[in-house]
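Q: Hi! First time asking for a complex rather than a single chain. Here are the components, and I think there are two in total. Is that enough to go on?
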Amino acid sequence: MTNPTTLATLLLAMRRTRRNSRSRFPLRAVLGTAFAILAAVGLAVITAGGTYALSNSQQPIAPVATITAGSAALRATALVVPPTPMYPGLTLFAPSTVTNTGTVALSLSGSLSAPAAPNALSQNLSVGFAVAPAAGCPASGPLATPPAGATLGSPDLKTAIVIPAGGQVSLCVSISLLPTASAAAQSQTATGLTLTVLGAQS
Amino acid sequence: MNKLVKGAIAGAAGIALLLGGAGTFALWNSSANVNGGTIVAGNLHLGTATTGSWTVAHIGTNGTYGTAVTVTDLSKFKASPGDQLTYTSEVPVTATGDNLVAAVSLSPGSIVATPTSATHTKVPADDELARFLTANTTVSMTGSGITGTAPNYVLTAGSGAGISTTATVTATITFASGAAGAENTAMLGSVDLSGMSLTVTQK
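A: Yes, that's all I need. Here is the structure of the assembled complex.
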């Protein structure tokens, strides 16, 4: 049997619950509102901005000064080739003085460029250079074996010659007609050949 | 009322109570103030540097630098690719602050093309030299309470008075040596170091 007191208590509690439910917001709505407020506050804080300046300090450390770069430069005297008629295997020599006018030591190499109008003679010439002996350059001589020079289309002539800054070296420039030159080279004149002496910082 | 109906109503009421409806549940809470104490800002300051000295070393064919030699008059020295110029001076450093980490570098504008003046006419080689030298600069700093490697150093200032020390600052300017002819455009160029400054920036 249901206790009347218990039932009255239950009914009273039910009525209270109903009143409380009518006077309060639904739980879901309450929480939703709270989160919205928090979010708004949080957002406001994040976007408040302001500056964050890390500490720093600056101080001059060097007196007034400049740094100047040097240079790499060569100068060579003009080449006077003997007017001796050439034949296959003959080498002609001509002196040239190369001066290092730059500020760094330079290692020498050479390259040969073709004339505007090549012919059978110019295409069979080998041009090179070496340090002149104390007695000076000979006028001519037999071809060195193997040819120590640069020919058209071949790699540049490499040497072990190094000129210090401000120094100079006397060279013997050699012009050789290769033994393989054909008869078509006879009576030809080769002009416009250019031997370039290259200096690279060493 | 029929007992069966009463029981049903009571049961329904009990079930309704158990379901809770939309009543409020006030959880316990409490609050207390927390004393934030006193916040003190740290400090990072460089003092006036002493007049330093220049040395130069040149890279060898094996890729390592030779012995550095003193340059007594930098204006008379002609730099070339492969040179490494080093300037060393003393700089007072004051630092206060826990966990203070700072990066050290040369300030922008430390190495610039020498401007035109009564004794110099600015040429493109000046800009080229400035470009080559600016691309290869490092700064290192040593001293009491200073640890780490370039460019980031830890200034172990600790709390309280922090550190006040004289740091040895070394600025290294390297004229790189690239392929043959790569630096030809800088020949006879000139750069001005009058704005050479050290910057220490907290990280």
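A: The two ends of chain A are 117 Å apart (CA to CA). Let me know if you'd like any chain examined more closely.
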